[in-house]
Amino acid sequence: MEEQVEETFSEKTLSGEEFIPDDICEYEDDGDEWESVSQISVASTSTDLSGSGSSVWIYFDKNPAHAPGFSVCKNCSKKYKSTTSVTSLRKHLQTHNTFADQRKEIIKKLHQVAGQFSLTANIWTSTINREAFLGLTVHYIDSNWSLCNFLLDIIPFAIKHSGVNIAQEIMRVLGEFNISSKIIALTTDNDSAMLACGKEIAAAFDNGVSSMNFSHYRCAAHVLNLGVKKGLKAVNNSVTKARKVTSIIKNSTSLCDSLRAFCSLKNIKYLKPILDVETRWNSTYYMLERFIELEPALVLLAADNRSISTLYPDDNDWSSIKVN
Asked: Which residues contact 4 (CB under 8 A, 6 or more apart)?
């Protein structure tokens, strides 16, 4: 259920406010550390609901030519370092009442949608500070029969990741946007907590929250991932060798430099090795595909480096890796 993703904000945005001259700021997220604020996605400077990207960027110029490396408020021209978190930028917007107004406008437009809504939900964990977040995305068909979706909320999740707790947070957000009565489906991964969450929400709707028939679906991509991972066990030893070699190279600047030199020697384009992710079977495919592309240079690297040589795939491993 949980995915690990890297965050781009700096330690300074987490640990304390820093004074920066010339109206350059890093806004500190003090007070409500676990406050949940909707991170609505839109396509342009209008309030169209069919696009993607945080609505914060409607009000900020990201990395403009006149201030590279900064995000500049369009309303007051205040500058924030590009590493400043979206939450901090959103807090600045509240001083202009723009974000609150935008949220009200989104709620208004949601109520104008004639059809029903479906949801997707997932929990991911930061690789930097191990904090967990619940992401909730809403999907619907508009009056032009176009499929629309955007991030309804992203919720810091410091409590136990139980089905009951996840369901309560989702129902709370639906209540804030007043769309509980129009929800017909929720799609999640196959984690037991998410399955329990689906049952909790279905029970809440059965108790009169919604007059619509509600269904909980297991994500087809996650079901496919489970099947492919099962199949990959047949060549697990070979894949493991490729993964270990890839990991060692990616974590060593000197090995990356050596690999680049050997690519040049073999007259092939240097490409960074790709390390797969457990929850994404296609990432294993991309890892092996890149591994095969780099084979001429990897042979030389293995001959030149003992740590690579001891883990390097043999002929049988390569035969397994190269199966089409």
From this structure: 124, 125, 126, 127, 277
